[in-house]
Amino acid sequence: MSAKNYSFFDAVKKSFYKAAEFTPWDKGLLHQINSCNAVYRMRFPVKRDDGSIDVIKAYRVQHSHHKTPCKGGIRFSLAVNQDEVMALAALMTYKCAIVNVPFGGGKGGIKIDPRKYSPYELEKITRRYTSELVKKNFIGPAVDVPAPDYGTGEREMAWIVDTYSAMHPNDINAAGCVTGKPISQGGIRGRREATGLGVFYGLKEVCSMEDEMQKRGLEPGVYGKRIVVQGLGNVGYHTAKFFQEEGALIVGIAEYEGSISKPDGIDLEALVLHRKQTGSILNFPGATNLENNTAALELDCDILIPAALENVINAENAPRIKAKIIGEAANGPLTPEADEIFIQKGILVVPDMYLNAGGVTVSYFEWLKNLSHVRYGRLEKRFNENMNARILESMETLTEKRVDEKNRGLIKHGADEVDLVYSGLEETMISATREIMEAWKSNDKIPDMRTAAYVVAINKVATTYSELGIFP
Ligand code: NAD
Q1: Does ligand 1 lie within 6 Å of residue 230's CB atom?
Q2: pTM tops 0.90
Q3: Domain range enclosing 318
């Protein structure tokens, strides 16, 4: 089946029911869990800079209200359609459940190519979309909290919070209506790189599992692993950056305009500079241009990380993939047919719905910060530094030895906001990886890690529903 005619929401449902077989829940409850609770489809006009008028199609889907607010990014892409937004919202419900973030799943999408609009036009579209959401009560710190996704970032989130706040002047928690904001608008340090860092922490934990590595003929650890990344946007760039910093080799990159390979490792920052200067990743010194923009996916490597769009690995190209591990940084990059092929080939697929949960995890921290109106670390940083200094001094007095300056700084350091965010994210990703692996190992009929992740998610959402007493 080609990637084009595959329904993304059907693929999510297929994975859901494959996993549901390994859970004890009633059929009706399972149906409720996988259904989309609310879909808002809107059309609105925007006046272009040249005076012409475009009619914009946009969506917001609230997949599950078993916990509120709903949470999920907003995507700007020409490929946006209702089915895609529903699928992405469903994945958010399961993702939040797995990483114990107390939200229901949501997602938004505007069907535009952002590259074809000026910043002023994009601002008008984003602000109008926000006011449409406000009118129907589809946004708010207690209702539904968007975030960045494909084609959006801090700039768009700043426009959203400003529009929402202007329409709710008495809401003291208005900053919590959206996450992924610039720091000056109530954002949190570490949110920009959070999804990529979470992908890195999750895969690092998988790479530390000796049995999983041994099955695939790999050494434990990240050092020296050969990585291919598709998409050098927010998620792909940061994932590649953290892998490179830990000693992995980026041997291939695929972008919109083409793909390149370099078996001894691509210098990521030099590539980003090259792309800025030339407008393309192609013709990067020392690297080979490959025949098209998907060719890098088929390179010989240890870990393949699709970090662009959905359905890019399907029945057609999956048989040619040589990676031993696939880390789904993007949402839905594999079709169910590709999944089956990888199960047969013994390739480990680390699934999207928990692997890219770093963004929503840190969004949760940002939302908590907005509701508490205080920066993480503000109250205790100085106290901890003073306490650490006193402990250090006492130890030096007792041992009559002096700790060197570098370690002295490390020991005395009190946690800043970014330290706490990284630590909370690392803990979240390690715990989620272990919980899913345990679920997988507890039943040898569960065929793959994705199914195990769904089992964990279904059990958590179903438990919430049943404890609410809705289904006696
Ligand atoms: P982004 O817009 O920052 O980056 C996407 C990148 O993919 C761009 O550089 C784009 O040029 C590239 N791309 C587009 N088409 C391509 C193609 N055919 N081949 C190769 N590259 C191509 O988006 P992002 O925020 O990094 O999101 C990427 C994926 O990660 C999406 O699936 C998104 O849903 C998922 N995700 C994002 C977040 C987040 O916090 N941003 C969180 C969870 C999941």
Answers
A1: yes
A2: yes
A3: 217-346
